[in-house]
Amino acid sequence: MTLPEQSIAATPTLWQEGGWYRHARALASPNFGPRPAGAQIDLIVIHSISLPPGEFGNGNVQRLFTNQLDWDAHPYFQGIRGLQVSAHFFITRTGALWQFVGCDDRAWHAGQSAYRGRSQCNDDSIGIELEGLEGSPFDAPQYETLAGLCAALLQAYPVRHIAGHEHIAPGRKMDPGAGFDWVLLQNSLALPDRYLPRRA
Question: Is the residue at 107 inside a domain?
């Protein structure tokens, strides 16, 4: 397999073929596809997720992304029955890092979306899900893992933007929400303002 020029060649010790991060626990999802020809992977999208909402550490996110979720296990699941989605990464409340799709491939995390003058953000973004409830705070181990992962992605891919799901799908999505500390992430990565969403 020939890797894109923008891909992992610059940091071979951190990355495996196809954009699999060596410090993540791999659990391959069937929900992915190839990126369009010439796609520039220049956007990181941060999400939040918990299944059911507000319940953590039960493995349901991993089951959802691998099409193994028992739709009858909780009433909430009836509203998402049959959903086929994925993200590249998932960070638990304890900071554990999972990967479901190689970064060179297109995960199904953004949905109908637009950012920095382009639509269909799945085509050229990397999706990171934080275990949490939109609007609520996230835990210190999650920020530590997220900062380390973003630093590695910034080295390996031509990332120029980091945004929340709420920024690429305004009015449709609200995550990660007001509980996410954008300043903390920015300071951890020493990024200039142009990388981050505009703050009110």
Answer: yes
CB 169 within 8 A of CB 45: no
- Expressed as residue numbers, the domain containing 42 is 8-189
Distance from C-alpha of 187 to C-alpha of 37, rounded to nearest angstrom: 34
| Report field, pTM of the whole predicted structure over 0.90 | yes
Q: Do the strands 32-33 and 106-107 form a parallel or antiparallel pair, or are they unpaired? A: antiparallel
Catalytic residue among 17, 129, 134, 166, which? 129
Question: Which is nearest to 109 in space by CA: 97, 121, 119?
Answer: 121
Annotated catalytic residue 129: yes
Q: What is the pLDDT of residues 151-173, one digit of tens each?
A: 999 999 999 999 999 999 999 99
- The alpha carbon torsion through 112, 116, 118, 119 (nearest 10 deg) reads 0
Three-state secondary structure call for residue 28 = coil
